[in-house]
Amino acid sequence: MERTLEHFQSRTDLAVEERERFEDDDVEISGVSIEEEFDEETEIKVTRVMITTEKGAKAMGKPKGTYITLEAPNMSVPDEDYHREISAALAKQISQLLPKNKDEQSILIVGLGNREITPDSLGPDVVGNLLITRHIVEEYGKLALGRDKINKISGIVPGVMAQTGMEASEIVRGIVDETKPDYVIAIDALAARSTRRLNRTIQIADTGIHPGSGVGNHRNGLTEKSLGVPVIAIGVPTVVDAATIVNDTMENLIEAMEQSNQLKGIGNTLNLFNATEKHQLIRELIAPHLNGMFVTPKDIDETIKRIGFTISEALNMALQP
Amino acid sequence: MERTLEHFQSRTDLAVEERERFEDDDVEISGVSIEEEFDEETEIKVTRVMITTEKGAKAMGKPKGTYITLEAPNMSVPDEDYHREISAALAKQISQLLPKNKDEQSILIVGLGNREITPDSLGPDVVGNLLITRHIVEEYGKLALGRDKINKISGIVPGVMAQTGMEASEIVRGIVDETKPDYVIAIDALAARSTRRLNRTIQIADTGIHPGSGVGNHRNGLTEKSLGVPVIAIGVPTVVDAATIVNDTMENLIEAMEQSNQLKGIGNTLNLFNATEKHQLIRELIAPHLNGMFVTPKDIDETIKRIGFTISEALNMALQP
Amino acid sequence: MERTLEHFQSRTDLAVEERERFEDDDVEISGVSIEEEFDEETEIKVTRVMITTEKGAKAMGKPKGTYITLEAPNMSVPDEDYHREISAALAKQISQLLPKNKDEQSILIVGLGNREITPDSLGPDVVGNLLITRHIVEEYGKLALGRDKINKISGIVPGVMAQTGMEASEIVRGIVDETKPDYVIAIDALAARSTRRLNRTIQIADTGIHPGSGVGNHRNGLTEKSLGVPVIAIGVPTVVDAATIVNDTMENLIEAMEQSNQLKGIGNTLNLFNATEKHQLIRELIAPHLNGMFVTPKDIDETIKRIGFTISEALNMALQP
Amino acid sequence: MERTLEHFQSRTDLAVEERERFEDDDVEISGVSIEEEFDEETEIKVTRVMITTEKGAKAMGKPKGTYITLEAPNMSVPDEDYHREISAALAKQISQLLPKNKDEQSILIVGLGNREITPDSLGPDVVGNLLITRHIVEEYGKLALGRDKINKISGIVPGVMAQTGMEASEIVRGIVDETKPDYVIAIDALAARSTRRLNRTIQIADTGIHPGSGVGNHRNGLTEKSLGVPVIAIGVPTVVDAATIVNDTMENLIEAMEQSNQLKGIGNTLNLFNATEKHQLIRELIAPHLNGMFVTPKDIDETIKRIGFTISEALNMALQP
Predict the structure, then answer these.
(1) Which helix (H) or strand (E) holds B44?
(2) What residues have CB less than 8 Å from C316, skipping those under 6 apart?
(3) Which residues on A lie below 8 Å from C163 (Cβ)?
(4) Nearest neighbour of A269 by CB, restricted to B114, B256, B266
(5) CA geometry: angle at C120 spanning C115 and C125, to 5°?
(6) Percent of chain C at pLDDT above 70?
(7) Between A207 and B194, where is the model more confident?
(8) A with C: how many residue pairs have Cβ under 8 Å apart?
(9) CB-CB under 8 Å, C133 with A162
(10) Contact state of C301 with D114 under an 8 Å Cβ cutoff
(11) CA B42: distance to chain centroid?
């Protein structure tokens, strides 16, 4: 029951937020393990959620795989060397997830999202800053780049359905079939459940992008199953759904009413409702026009520019060491 | 008392929304008159709020002047001839507000807002589509444009403080002092109180832009007093403040509780609070980090492009008939 | 012999410029027919070059097919209704070239070129203004668009090799294989031989895009052979190669020398050279660093915006009548 | 006489190119001194031309002042740390030219040029990457930025006349009068005489921007005389005028003819013309439509992005050490 309400409330692309739902219960979820490390110097916290069984996947509402979350509170503020320490930490985490089946690899990097909507333009921004090498290696060989060993990097910004009339997944699948990369890295702006994580969290997952993820609500995912090659997903929450924010505040109100002495009368009355009824009440009060609306900070332009640079530098480090 | 709560709730740049606060009371506010007309063919509703006395200004929380609102539900949907009927209706309304002291006038059009934030880029978009003539007339004379009579149009996109380190008002005042236009037209993206009016309402006012208006919260206004020449303001609500949306839903909840039989207990308890206490309760429940956040639709990119074109066409019609 | 020199000089994507090489000779080229019409009211000249045999193709240096050129001198100047008359004339010509095998068709429109280089951003600009319908028809059916009969339009901006590491042709072939459109329309900025035609000529061809065409020098073409579906190409010359401009002026100099009485001495001397030697002389004098450079007008930003709009409106008319 | 021809030929904003005209003569120009230094490690060559008398100014066709040229051949190629060594060398040179009358200064940085034309967007690009501080210092004091001593940096992108209807100088003068900076730094894309210096030379001058400079041909300059405060100009040649390129090649042809044995006949004939007649001949052969056209490399998008970053980093170093 509780689950229903919480599920309604959730709308999050972050495994680490999904995990938090269970924290109060202090239960261990079978098939889900979690590791945390904190670097005091850089103030970066890395959380690794591993979902190893179907049961764990069901409990978490996310597919089996590894989800690494890097929380860097400083990421949302400006910095003179463009947060090189975050790029370095991120490069290290990305490297650990990358398939290492070959010495030299061909990698397609996909910048999902809409470059015309500021908080959704993270993916296009990252691809715009990457060191693209595939065409040089194919035309002149790797020595043209002064290296013995080099990965072939290609990049694409597929755009969104309103611009192309096509699913991003159709476009990417076509390109993968044609150019046969060893794996795909997809960058996407995510929706978080709470504003607290906006623009200071990066999630890396080896499970790809799943339907309904991201700001733009991709209907089809980008996964190893759909593309035929492994897909690493890198995401940053840049928006919260408008309905989620309202809902969360309502939850706070109800909780406050139940706990406060002064409001005991309300609390008692509300206790007459079960979770489903409360859920229904909230749903009615949230105006339906909030669907299709998102919440984002007013300085999102500078934030996206900065985080995009941090991620593209991390990819350059991880892919061309 | 009620006023306090409602004022907290309001955060609107639209006179027509301000006026609505008084509708239930069905009182006439002294010094405020209102006219409405509706065109059945185009489905455009024009509301004209005239604030004629200081008392009316105080009641409305807006300076004396004329506020014309044009509501065009179709504006937020695509159209083959780019809503020429809305441009025409808007041109007519703009023309009525323009100063007509001279036969040929020099007009500076200011595109306020941040071109890097989609819902705040309306002003820059409009200026980008205008027919700019001042430099041609100054260099070659009006015959160069094949006309007997021509207004000299100039345009500026001053940017926002985080980009320039200057108030938009400082930049515009400097340019007005230097180029001495007869009047200024300022275009700005506005914040509405409710999502219902987003992207389907255009407000034209002869009072200029006032502090705290707009998405970007200009600290200083653009008014006849500050610039020395009349200022016509054209605004479209493209965002709602995140705190406003939460607050409105909470109001709905409290109202529902007070009215519902089932929730009578809560209603009664809440009746023990006065407006200020309710206001305080809500304020505590709204997370402070919602400040500096805005709500906007997911298709805001296409909407801004379309409305920007509608307004620039209207200005071209009104200024070079 | 003459041919060699002229071939060196040519670097044109326009069939109509290619045809001009033969005009002085006043010969008919076998396998090449030509029709011209001129509309006095709109001042639009339409030339239709049909290459019907392999011999004609060889003489023209262009593949067999129909090349329609629409010359509209007004296109490069601003206009109040955005040159609707040119859009209409263009729509008519496009319609005549479109495959008509089915009642409702699925069409992929490809905006070739680099959106970051102003004269090369024509293709991306056009795709940005199109009425995209494929996703709506696929999700809600054609009635959602209020029509009985509708074409499914999709669009893609593949980017250039320096940005993606991939040939545009690889990307487009992948997408065609995946989404199976009935045909492809490709929009591209072209290189002209002379500045006279820049930004006032539109070429439509049913032969696709061929290697070496366009500003960006695509190495692989987009043709029915390479994509498996017919390809209509729409191009506008927006640049001239820097080497071409220098070469042309040199040709003028040599010609002037040969003809002028005053310069007869030079003319006589030059007569001692044959075409190949003259060609060699010119090649040496043209600095090699001019390769990879282009010439374009200083107001190319406004021109591209205007022509892009003219073409996208024409496509909207032709594809959704 | 020679001078006339060479003046026609010149169209350069670079003092160092102006100086080269005199090199063959190996004369010293009175009132013009020159210093050069070369750093073997970074391969950066710094040339300092000081024009100290009116006579020198007249000979050079440039106002009295200091012109520093930094030539960095690597600047036009990509680099992993974004050419930090060039930024550092540039910061050092900029620092030496800055007025040092006060401990803390207020500086307005002007990004001249058209952001919609790739090679002319250097100025807007640089301003977009700057550390802007004026508004923070004015609102919260310098401690808000964690420093004892801080310069107040503001920035403006005035746009070009076709977009604003105003001279950039009118806009900047208005803003200077209103915000009273201690001095102005203006960034501009320049026209060079030869393609050899494109995108690898940065010129810093303490004389401001003069009429006719830059890609966009500003009619009025930005100088201490016109603005009332010192103006430092930073420029990079990103284009060559189309007429200049043709003219240069013609000069090569004539020179070759005069020298070659084989072409002696022509040389002799040409000797019958004086410089003015030759000049006239060339002018006739250069098509008039080349005016208003520029030549630029095909990879100008990446180059501008890179050089813009190098300059903004240099300004950040020089202004907030």
Answers:
(1) strand B44-51
(2) B80, C130, C131
(3) 127-128, 132, 155
(4) B266
(5) 55
(6) 78
(7) A207
(8) 93
(9) no
(10) yes
(11) 22
Nearest to C171 by CA among A133, A135, A176: A176
The length of chain B in residues reads 321
Nearest CA in chain B to D124: B163
Q: Which of D196, D263, D287 has the CB atom closest to C195's CB atom?
A: D287
**Residues in chain D where the model's pLDDT stays below 50:** 1-11
Residue numbers in B near D156 (CB within 8 A): 159, 164, 166, 171
pLDDT at C41 over 70: yes
Query: Chain C contacts of B316, Cβ < 8 Å?
Result: 80
SS3 call for A264: helix
Which of A133-142, A261-270, A282-291, D225-234 is least confident?
A: A261-270
Provide, as residue numbers in chain A, all residues whose Cβ is less than 8 Å from the Cβ of D316: 80
Query: Closest Cα to residue C281, out of D260, D193, D271?
Result: D260
More confident site: B60 or A88: A88
| C-alpha span between B192 and B12 (Å, rounded) | 5
pLDDT score recorded for residue C141: 86
Most B-contacting residue of D164, D182, D315 (CB-CB within 10 A), to test interface: D164
**Burial letters B222-260, b for 16+ CB under 10 A, else e:** bbeebbebbbbbbbbbbbbbbbbbbbbbbbbbbebbeee
d(CA D248, CA D91): 34
Q: Would the pLDDT of A189 be above 60? A: yes
Nearest to B165 among D153, D163, D164 (CB): D153
Name the more confident of C166 and A251.
C166
Q: What is the pTM of this model?
A: 0.90
Give DSSP secondary structure letters for C238-272.
EEEEHHHHHHHHHHHHHHHHHH-STTHHHHHHHHT
Q: Which two tokens stand for residue D59?
A: 């000979």
Q: Which residues of chain D neighbour C256 with C-beta distances below 8 Å? A: 281, 284-285
Beta strand extents in C26-115 (DSSP E only): 32-39, 44-51, 65-71, 106-111
To probe the interface with C, which of B77, B80, B305 has the most C CB atoms within 10 Å? B80
**Is the Cβ–Cβ distance between C320 and C149 less than 8 Å?**
no
pLDDT value of position A127: 98
Task: Supply the angle between the helices B264-271 and B242-259 in degrees, to the nearest 10.
Answer: 110
Residue D12 Cα, gap to closest chain B Cα (Å): 25
Q: How far is C185 from chain B (nearest CA, A)?
A: 21
- The 3-state secondary structure of C153-191 reads EEEECCCCHHHHCCCHHHHHHHHHHHHCCCEEEEEEEEE
Average pLDDT score over residue span A34-60: 92
Check A176 against C174: CB less than 8 A apart: yes
Interchain contact, B156 vs D133, CB within 8 Å:
no
Q: Is B311 helix (H, G, I), strand (E, B) or coil?
A: helix
H or E, element range at B240: strand B231-241
CA angle C121, C126, C130 (to 5 degrees): 150
Of A11, A6, A25, A5, the residue nearest A275 (C-alpha): A5
Task: Tell whether the model's pLDDT for residue A24 goes beyond 70.
Answer: no
pLDDT along chain B (321 residues), means of 10: 31 70 63 91 93 91 92 80 88 92 90 96 96 92 81 96 95 97 96 85 93 64 94 95 76 67 57 62 66 89 94 94 75
- In A, minimum Cα distance to C107 occurs at A165
Q: Quote the CA–CA distance of A211 and A221 in Å, as a whole number.
A: 5
Nearest CA in chain D to C215: D298
Alpha carbons within 13 angstroms on the beta-carbon side of residue B150 total: 20
Of A114, A256, A289, the CB nearest to B196: A289
If you write DSSP's letter for every residue of B200-226 in order, what string do you get?
TEEEEETT-B-TT-TTTT-SS-B-HHH
